[in-house]
Amino acid sequence: MNKKDLFANLDKMFFPKSVAIVGSTDIPGKWGFLITSNILGNAYKGKVYPVNSTKKNIMGCPVYPDLKDVPDGVDLAFVTIPAKALPETLKTCIAKNIRAVVIISSGFSETGQEGKLLEKEIVDIATQGGITFIGPNTMGIASMHNDLVSVGTPVHPLKGGLGIISQSGNLGTQIIQWSISKNIGLGIYAGTGNEAQLKTNDLLSYFGSRHEVSAIALYIEGISDGKGFMESVKHITKVKPVIALKGGRTSTGSQAVKSHTGSMAGSAEIYNSMFKQTGVIQVDNPSELLYVAGAMSVLPVPKGNRIGIMSLGGGWGVITVDECEMADLKVPSLSEHIIEDLNKWLPSFWNKANPIDLVGEPNPELHIHTLNLLANWDEVDSVIALGTVGQVAFYRTGLENQERIMGKKFSPEIVESVLKARSDVELNFFKEMARLQKETKKPILAVSLAQEDTDFMVNTEHGNVITLPTPEEAVNIIKHMVRYRNYIDSL
User: Fold this and answer.
1) Could you give the CA distance from residue 445 to residue 310 in angstroms, rounded to a whole number?
2) Are 216 and 328 members of one domain?
3) What is the pLDDT of residues 87-122, one digit of tens each?
4) CA distance 453 to 440
5) Which domain covers residue 24, as residue numbers?
6) pLDDT digits (tens, 9 = 90+) for 251-275
7) What pTM, to 2 d.p., does this model score?
8) Of the residues 267, 296, 325, which one is the last residue of a structural domain?
């Protein structure tokens, strides 16, 4: 199948106007239930056709006894029935001109020789009939700009620019859930399953072509066509970042990959070289994959490795400078212009250096003014702001201390008023971060004093900004972005 026809089929898969669910059911826990409830529960706006030979109605939808009985055209079919029924189902798809199929069903190459033969049979049928399918043995797909969520766990992802391709269904859906908790928006998700027909390389090329995806997070255990992977990904990394986590990098992990998917993991050195040559950003664990990819889906890529740092207190600034130096990031000396400016705002004993120690001064205008000075300073390419946000928890605890001292409670109105005032201060800081980030094209990251008070991604009227729980995580994101910039500049 040529690329144009493949992408046309993938448009039907990820942006369908109608879907059929073969094996749909109202029995909780079954795959047909999970897929149907996720599609309906996430308010998919297209037509939904449950297919089940024994039911009349499922979740308020009329049910059809067989796929061939669906009266209208269908863009995408989900299949959750036993493996041996797949050949006939695919033939029905061909007859109904359904060109995109998601095969949830298991029982193929992952089970042994008989399953391998059955898998080959469905690949032959699909290929001859012009069908593109993902799977088998996939945990599903999602396409948030089409309001389509069809994975094996109940989730309500947020809409955004992150694309996720995962060779592990459970890890993929776990990352989706993490993205929700971190307020990271999802563009498109694909769990690749056995990759009997549609490969990771194909999905990479497609995700790279879609404007809904601004960064791609990739979990891989093995690539069967290394040359094809490199050809696909090097075209993508020219225009958008690809962040990869390779499973099976150790000898024991490699054996686990073989038992999990049946694929050969390959040596870590080969993958390291392949990623380096093609500009793929390699990370070491799932949380780093989500943080780096989520950040790069919204942040501008810095033009260089120079960092401006402002800190509520001295210690965090010192730690951040250490982290920057270990990451080959530069922390330039503060300009005389900025020193003279801040002399008017800060006590005479302030450090007059980068990182700027705000010596605990609480004045919100000072923090915003300092942020502006750093963001507009030509000698830095990125900014890290430490401790300005995440103070609501301390205000809350301070009120509790006063209540204990007084022996009585403040009224709920007073507590709400104090906490809202602090929240408003921090929201204004986020807004200024977003405005400056958009205006200067420099990434500006905040590090929160208290993790529970802020989302990883904060949405403002000027765009999205990122806040981290620790300085090292902020530095790590900038480090990866700088390496990506170096790759782009080398082309």
Assistant:
1) 11
2) no
3) 999 999 999 999 999 999 999 998 899 999 999 999
4) 27
5) 3-296
6) 554 555 454 444 544 678 899 999 9
7) 0.94
8) 296
